[in-house]
Amino acid sequence: MNQFSDERGAELRELFFETAQELLQSLNDDALKLEKTPKDAEIIRSIRRTVHTLKGDAAACGFLELSELAHLMEDALAVEVTSSSVSLAELGFTAADTFGAMLIAYRFRQRGQENQSQQEAQRGQPAGGVDRIRKTRRGGRPGGREEHIPYRGAD
After folding, report:
1. With bands split at pLDDT 50, 70 and 90, how would you rate the model's confidence at 81?
2. What is residue 129's predicted lDDT score, i.e. its pLDDT?
3. Among the listed residues 26, 33, 149, the one whose alpha carbon sits nearest the alpha carbon of residue 88
4. Staple partner for 63: which of 58, 77, 116, 128, CB 3.0–4.6 Å?
5. Buried residues in 115-140 as b, exposed as e (16+ CB within 10 A)
6. Dmax of the chain from CA atoms?
7. What are the DSSP calls for 18-36, one per residue?
8. Which of 1.10.565.10, 1.25.40.10, 1.20.120.160, 1.10.3720.10 would CATH assign to domain 8-140?
9. pLDDT tens digits for 37-50?
């Protein structure tokens, strides 16, 4: 890469981190609304749109683990595969926390602060959120196969 593309990439990633924080706030706000009206299809669609945007933005910046997990979350929110035993509001909160912890890990990795990133990611317990989203996604595909998406934190 030349210096221009490195600078441009850094600028785009910084914009991604700013936008992602706004998306996570929106995800939390919608999850709060969904707690009050759990079957509100418009709120569920809003959450899916937010997660879809985060998925695409993360992929564009090369944060593939976040993009793949957001894809699973997006599918888990599909009305036709949603289980009545799953609290979508709780899933929304878990996703926001997990995505937030992953963003912290990515940001610190970008800055070369790997040790601090690992500690922050562990405090946010992203692996537990990843597992919860994966379990919710089970059965959403024909045959009920679970996809394995490893969360590597800051490594």
Report:
1. low
2. 62
3. 33
4. 58
5. eebbbbbeebebbebbebbbebbeeb
6. 52
7. HHHHHHHHHHHHHHHHHHH
8. 1.20.120.160
9. 988 989 999 999 99
